[in-house]
Amino acid sequence: MSTNYYLIKNPCPCCGKGEANLHIGSSSSGWAFALRVNEFDKSPKNIHEWHTEIFNENNKIIDEYDNAITPNNLWALIDKPNPGTLRHIEHYQVTADPKLSYDLVSYEFS
Ligand SMILES: [Zn+2]
User: Fold this and answer.
1) Which of 2, 33, 72, 96 lies at a 20 to 30 A Cα distance from 85?
2) 59 Cα–ligand 1 center, Å
3) What spacing in Å lies between the alpha carbon of 33 and ligand 1's midpoint?
């Protein structure tokens, strides 16, 4: 069972619509966080760009059920002190560094 997270860039204060709605990735218990990265679309390209967007207070983070999540709570799912046990290495276009608690996934998924 996994939960997807999304970042709304600069949501409008009246209607909540943002400049972009970016898929951050998904979290599953026992798995490394699947972080969506891409060189060629609007997604951040790496963990550093995601950190900047996630902690930018003009942006809003929600899960797939529309619940808001704070930057710190989301970051705790991505950058855990103990790396996840299961990795997404069976997939094409995934970078899974065993020292890290997240895998970089360079294609769209849900
Ligand atoms: Zn509006």
Assistant:
1) 72
2) 14
3) 32
